[in-house]
Amino acid sequence: MSVLVLVLAVSAAFCLGIGFVLQQNAAQHAPLSDFLSPRLLLDLVRVPRWLGGIGFMVCGMALGAIALGNGEISLVEPLLATNLLFALALSRHQTRQPLGKQGWAGLALLAGGVTAFIVAGEPRSGDAVTDPLRRWLIIGVMVGSALLLTAYAKKSRMSAAPVLLGVAAGLLYGVQDALTRMSGQLFSSGGWAGLFTSWQPYGVLVLGVTGLILVQSAFEMAPLRMSLPALTAAQPLAGIACGVGFMGDQLRTDAGALAWQATGLTAIVSGIVLLGMHPAMPTAGPREGDRAGVGV
Fold first, then answer.
1. How far is CA 65 from CA 18, 51, 196, 279, in A?
2. Distance between CA 50 and CA 13 in Å, rounded?
3. Which end of the chain is more exposed for a tag (fewer CB within 10 A), N or C?
4. If you count DSSP H runs as helices and E runs as strands, how many of each does the chain have, helices first?
5. Predicted pLDDT at 98
6. pTM beyond 0.85, yes or no
């Protein structure tokens, strides 16, 4: 495993975690009438704290893109999932809540799961799948699932909506990470001309904006603990599916390695859930007209 990729991915996770907390602090005061509307971004762009959060997020995405350009997506994605640890650290500073047994257990599961998956899987590069049907099938399943979750969240406007939107955004961000890596490869082989005459960079832009609207809508409806763990769990799973499915990433496939990889992924998801339920994760404060007219 490259030390450079490790440093880049963890640095990206740090920026993403801080950015998510700042964004949620601002989004929780946005008008609920902007739910799942581009107007939400227009309202939030006037809030300095939200702009600061976006700045951290952009830095995180840039560092993540560099990491993806130098390492396998199956290696980078689990490391990016540690953004929840940094979000928890900032939230703990805000709430003055100690970690306690639950927080330490979640931290140990997340860190141990990432380590187990990477050590057991030994992610390495391979030849990308040239069959466009297979690639579009995997992307279609991810994007289609995200659209279905979003439609259900919009229809229900219930307490589960932030979780559904978090999963949907995570699926889109996982595909976005795969397309980001593909865009980097296109730039390396064909320069700017090869990049901008391909569909991948435009896919990155569309998925990024759509995911941003979903995330901010989830942030405005409920505490960070309701959406960020779901997002953090879904993104690496979607990214790994794309990496192994059509980008040529290879993992060890002997029985012992597969068992440890499954154990690592289970530990990652379990740790994310425990950390997300921890009281140190910030809660949304009361607002004027709070939840009035919103079906629950």
1. 18, 21, 17, 32
2. 18
3. C
4. 11, 0
5. 67
6. no
